[in-house]
Amino acid sequence: MDSLKCVLVEDHLMFQDLLLPLLQGMAGLQVTATARTAAEAIAAVKSTDPDLLILDLSLPDQPGLVVAEALQQQRPEARVIVLSGQASSFVCPRELEPCLYAVVDKTCAFSALRQEIGQLLTLRASTAGADPSPPGRRTELTDREQQVLALIGQGCSSKAIAQTLGLALGTVETHRRNLRVKLDASGSELVRLAVLQSHGH
Amino acid sequence: MATEAALAISVAVAVCSLLWALALLIRLRQQQRELRRSRQALDLQQQTLRRKLRTSLTAAVVAHEINQPLSSLSLISDQLIGQAGASADLAAALPMLQVLREESKRVVDLIEKMRMLLRSVESEQAPICLAEVANSALAYLRRPLAAASVQLSCRGLDTSRALLHGDAAQLQVAVTNLLRNALAALADQRPAERRLAVEIRELRQEVELKVSDSGPGLPEPLLPSGPIGEQPWATTKTTGMGLGLYLVGATVENHRGSVQLGRSDALGGAEIILRFPLLEATEPIAPSRTK
Question: Comparing C-alpha atoms, which of B144, B203, B207, B208 is closest to residue A111?
């Protein structure tokens, strides 16, 4: 597999100089360009078409996020690691959430960047480069799954749920299976969670 | 005789009018003096506020500026520690390098606390999507959450578009602290039992963020809910959980919101609900951006 092409955007030259050997020392990663301003970074994105952008948010000419927007337009599957001195107060706009891979504090750049990029490389290898999403055990239930969960909590059988919601029995079973996977629960645990949740609302 | 009486009455009336005018004049002067005193007090208050704001902004700028060389120091010490295995000189200096790294980390933590406290005072208000704030806080804490094998379930975070008028960075710091406290509460549980739920709901006039966990729950004295000022946990303690809760309290107060503390029926641990007034549909909406 080709190396992961990366553009490093950091306006402080000394910090950039410190980061560069760290990134260049990572197997499977190729730093194709460095930039100190948003304008330079956008030009580098256009010319080198990177898979990864390591992005400082505070740039002298424009906010760093304009570079992420440019990358997302050009290459929606590319990823961004925000590297900021104000990481704890960075709010990512909804439209850029899909391309945000990680948010890293500059003060722990060494360990966090190695960890994040290492994980990204592993993930890319396992998904053959297709749309690597950050690992984590996060789940978001759909409205239909919420309805099914609520009815399970009320003690309804799959058949009763199918009748109530006007669905096929197989569809309800699929929802139950997805709920078990998403909530990492066995059949009985799912019922327990559903009952507890129905009492909680 | 009648003329004299009429004259006497006229004089009396004139004297009375004069006295009344005099009294009025004295009253007016008094009121003017009071008004001047109030104005002076107000000016003094404004000057103090301006001074405090200047100090706060200066401190925030200083904190930001310190962060850059501090980041370089941390990075250099990390790199040298990493290379200590390949160099006898660096290996000999390893204990000192570790002290350098630890001391840098202490300053980093102090600066972070200082910035969070400053953030709870200064405010840049704009229309904010609460779900974006919650998603960003979760993205920021993804590494520690994954390291602790926390099972995270979210509801409404991908779909809610509810806006409130607020300070994005201040809200973000508050939500991050809520999540950090929840993460700390899960530390003593077995990894398989560590559950965290984050939910956003849009109510009629408010938007609600609920954070619940499977930890031991909040201590009893913290449980009664009510206006933020009456909360027993509205503490100014600046360490551990205290700072986080103080920041949450200050943020909620600054955004005219409310807090409800309780026990989660679904997960068994603590449940904290923040509610904020929804942005009125008539107010202009601009895309949210934080540097």
Answer: B144
The helix, strand and coil proportions of chain B, stated in percent and rounded to the nearest 5, come to 60, 15, 25
Interface test mutation site (partner B, options A36, A91, A139, max chain B beta carbons within 10 A): A91
| Interchain CB contact of A96 with B (< 8 Å) | no
Identify whether A134 is part of a domain: no
In a domain, A135, yes or no: no
* Model pLDDT for residues B172-212, shown as the tens digit of each residue: 989 999 999 999 999 989 988 899 999 999 998 999 999 99
Substitution target in A11, A23, A88 with the highest count of B β-carbons within 10 Å is A88
Answer yes or no: do A42 and A73 share one domain.
yes
Chain B residue numbers with beta carbons less than 8 Å from the beta carbon of A116 are: 143
Q: How many A-B residue pairs are in contact by the CB < 8 A criterion?
A: 149
Into how many domains does chain A fold?
Answer: 2
For the question of an ipTM over 0.85, the answer is no
A13-24 vs A109-126: helix crossing angle, rounded to 10: 40
Q: Answer yes or no: do A147 and A113 share one domain.
A: no
C-alpha A78/C-alpha A76 separation (Å) is 6
What is the residue range of A45's domain? 4-126
Domain CATH code at residue A29: 3.40.50.2300
CATH of B126-277, one of 3.30.450.20, 3.30.565.10, 3.40.190.290, 2.60.40.60: 3.30.565.10
Residues 132-171 of chain A with CB under 8 A from chain B are: 134-141, 146
Residue extents of the structural domains in chain B: 1-119, 126-277
SS (H, E, C) B174-196: HHHHHHHHHHHHCCCCCHHHCEE
pLDDT tens-place string over residues A63-93? 999 999 999 999 999 999 999 988 888 999 9
Do B157 and A148 contact (CB within 8 A), yes or no? no
